[in-house]
Design a protein that fits this description.
Length: 296
Amino acid sequence: METRFLKTFLNVVELTSVAAAARLESLTPSAVVQRIRALEADVGTVLLRRSGHSTRPTEAGVAILEMARKLIEGTESLKAIATRNEEVGTIRVGVIHSMITGLLPEILTAMKEARPGILVDVQPGQSVDLYQKVLDGTLDAAILVEPPFAISKEHVWRELRRDRLIVLTSSTEQETDVLTILRQAPFIRYDRKHWGGRTVEGYLRREKLSPPDRYELDSLEAIAVLVDRGLGVSLIPDWLPPWPEGLRLRKIAVEGAPTRNVGVIYRQLSSKDRLVEAFSQEACKAAKAKELTLRL
C-alpha cells in the first residue's frame, strides 16, 4: 500500500474536494482519482463518495482515518529521524486567509532559497480551527491570530506582526472623527467568531459603542468591497496588502485601540522540531522585511 495514496486520501477528506487536493499536491484531478481507486483496490472497499458539491468519506473511509493519519505521521517521523542532521522533509502549516497573500509568498520564497530541502504543505483556514489542529497534531505549525487566552507551555508562539485597527470608509465620507463615524454610519462588522473580530468587539465595548449593524462578515476582503460600494463603514485590522484592486477607500487610524497580533505557533518538542523551527525563523525574517518595505 502506497503511503502517498493514503496522504492523497487524507487531503481529499480534509478539503472535501478532489480538485482542491489535486491543487495542493500539484497533481491533475484524474491523477488524484487514480490514486484513490488504487487505494480502494488495496483496501477492498469504497472509501470516498460524492455528496452534492463535496467529496465525503464513506463509513469505511471514516473508519480508517485515524490509522491513516498515524501511518503518515509514522512515515514522516522515520524520514525526520533518518535526516535529523539535515533540513529535509515536509511540514504541514496552516495559514489564515489574510496571510496567504500578505506574507506567505515571501516566506515560501525564502524557504525555497535558504531551506530548499523543506517542503511546506499549506492548509488555509481560520485561526480557531488552525489552532486546534496544531494542538491535536494534524498541523505541525500555523500562522494565525494570537488566541485570546494563554497558550499552552508545550507550544511556542512567535509574533510576526501587529495589525492596527482602522475605521474603513468609502472615499466620499467627509467625517473624520472615529467615534462619530462609528455611532452614526451603518456598520459592517468583522465576524465576532473570529479572534480578530473579538479584538474589534473588545474596543467597541470599551468605548461603549453600539454601531448600527448592517452586515456581519468573516472576510476582510468582502468587507472592504462593501465599504467601497457605500453600504456602510467598518472597524477592521489593517491587514497586509495586496487588497482587492480598484477600491476607493479611506483608512482612519484608531488611536489607543488594541492590535490584532499575528504569529506562528508550533509544538516545542516533535519529530519535526528542526524543520518547524527553520520555518519559524524564515517567517520572522520575511515579516520584518515586509514591514521595512511597506515603510519605504
